[in-house]
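Minimal example, chain plus calcium ion.
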Amino acid sequence: MSDAAHEGSGLRVVFVEDDEETRRLVARNLEAHGYHVDLAADGAAAMARWEARRPDLVLLDLGLPDVDGLEIVRYIRRESTTPILVLSARGREEQKVAALDLGADDYVTKPFGMSELHARLRALLRRSAGPERELDGALVVGRIRIDTSRHEVQVGEAPVHLTPREFELLRVLAASRGRVVTHHRLLEAVWGRGYTDEGHYLHVYVSQLRRKLDAADPGGDAGAVIVSEPGVGYRLESS
Ligand code: CA
């Protein structure tokens, strides 16, 4: 078996997409990567496939002819934590946020490349493993090491001095590395429930955090691991 064919290693995917050409091309590619793919062209078929197959993950186009794709997310999340990756059109940031708030795990914006889709799928399938953990419980993402018990951060060997809020922001992103965390969820986790409309806080704190990570890094670009997803949230790149 080639490396590519090993990637999906027999995982069962229900792929919901009304556009026939996209459905065919993506399904063929996923199958070449070792996934077992079940197809659905509308919402009714999606729910039937979901009930019949109980797949390992769901790849869901939100723009369906019969029902709003968000209804499918809601339907699956009533009873299951199966990973859901949504496909959403460019410019539909509110729809992406709504899908994530309903419990979808991540999204890819159309049109997308297959390498991007596979990167998102890998991040999703790693989610139960979470960030790499060292024996003392530190989170490790690339060259960044976050010691959650001592509240210490290092880039390589260099210490990074963070305020408690900056630290918490980095910790929350690291705990979901590779997957987008919405502005709303970050604000709630770091500042609390009363602050979920204060998006400018995030902008300021993320800038500071990036600057401090960069300053501790001889290469000067450690802060680039924090990626903005405009209108949606932030993600910590995992590679
Ligand atoms: Ca569609």
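The CA atoms of residues 12 and 55 lie 5 Å apart. The chain has two domains: 3-127, 139-238.
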